[in-house]
Amino acid sequence: MPIARANSTPGAAPSSATLRQQVYAQLRSAIEQGRWPAGTRLPPSRTHAGLLGVSRNTVLWAVQRLLAEGYVEARVGDGTYVAQALAQPSADKATGTQALVPPPRGLSRRGQLVADTAARWRPPLVPARAFRIGAPEVASFPFAVWDRLARQASQAQRAARAHYLDPAGDPDLRQAVAQWLWASRGIRCDAAQVVVCSGSQQGIDLIARLLLDVGDEVLVEDPGYPGIRASLLGHGALVRPVPLDASGLCIAQGAAQWPAARMAVVTPTHQFPTGVRMDLLRRQALLQWAREHNAWVVEDDYDGEFQYGNAAQRVPALCSLPGSERVLYVGTFSKTLHPGLRLGFVVVPPALVVAFAKARAITDRHAPGDAQAVLARFIAEGHLLRHLRRMRELYLHRQQWLIDTLADASDGALQLQPSDRGMHLLHEVPVGIDDEPLARSAQAAGVMLAPLSRYAVQSPRRGWLFGYAGYGDEDIRAAARVVGALARRASKA
Prior knowledge:
The protein is α/β, with parallel strands linked by helices and 493 residues long. The chain has three domains: 16-119, Winged helix-like DNA-binding domain superfamily/Winged helix DNA-binding domain (Arc Repressor Mutant, subunit A, Orthogonal Bundle), CATH 1.10.10; 143-383, Type I PLP-dependent aspartate aminotransferase-like (Major domain) (Aspartate Aminotransferase, domain 2); 386-492, Aspartate Aminotransferase, domain 1. It contains 16 helices and 13 strands. The protein has helices at 16-32, 45-52, 56-69, 109-119, 143-151, 155-161, 171-185, 200-211, 226-234, 251-257, 280-293, 353-364, 369-380, 383-409, 436-444, 473-492; strands at 72-75, 79-82, 194-197, 217-222, 238-245, 248-249, 263-266, 296-300, 327-332, 344-347, 424-429, 450-451, 462-467. Helix 2 (45-52) packs across helix 3 (56-69) and helix 5 packs across helix 13. It is globular and about 70 Å long. Mean pLDDT is 87; it is low at 1-14 and 88-101.
């Protein structure tokens, strides 16, 4: 189904960037307005370019952007199609996710870009229930300890924190974080390199805001976290999906396919969502790529604190390796403590600290002073370490409980493999199996079950993600019975 020829200003030769944006905008509009419904196959790029009177590279650029944003999906050996997810109703009461509706008009070009990309990332807006991923155990958080530490602050200390504060963060908290990183993740950094932010999402946003220009290429994991892609796309970066293997991000393939890339964003300790751990050789290759290409590596240490077994077996952070000078480390307390705290941090090279602090000030000045001060004491007095020890034991129990109950409930149709890290398990199925129907049926029955395809850009990998950390035994059992029955029914169909 061809679209109208890209328009240009009369008497002026449009730039290639203008043509690319026009083609992209018209394609997106055709999808949003229903002229290209879900499941429609896009014309081959050469044919499409001829219809529009533009180069094939222009069409490819527009389609790549739509792929990254989730408007279309590539089917290996069968072309590109309008994403099936766009056929879902505009409101999702079961999960509380944002509706797939066109963003408001009247925005600036940049505002439209942010609104468009944010519309493709739909984080849940309702309380977590099994098997939603990324939800930690909240009921066991030591709220009484936290409250006691808060009450111990003097009136003078409370008054001092009521003023405008250092946008880089409370000095005591930055010092506590630096010491914690050395003890827990093997990262040697100065407290001055720690910039406090409101979580990993804001950390990624600051990095993209300061280190990327519009049109810069960024390598991302495929499948990978859509929140990272949305942030990068919102800043005008070109997201370049790179496949994974058993060793992590295939950096050699990514570098060969996208030689102009200026950044790579990775989750090397526990790759989201596949759970793969990047091995040492691949980590070294990634650092070498960054040095040779004068590029940045962003290490999102997803689930880095949740490695089970003794401390000697835990893999240190990528940022702790020799030659990691071009690595920016992003951490958050949303998983180790709870997401309502809204505190995280970025460890940046010394030369970038001032710029990051100023950018944080422009965004929202600084994090709440009282929360920073209490967290600093919570870490320094050992409460974080004790809490994590309890959670590691609890999560390991819940993981095994999930494996056992799901296998029993499904009569063996769903056999999850144990993992020595993380807060969720992936059950992968052969390429070609559609993982959406089971997820939709589970959702209709009140169970949050994410299909792997929702995290893929070009990857054909399929399966389901089972979060277990934040749910008690009975919640896991009840959800397992629902999914198990659906899996048994599907296996007999």
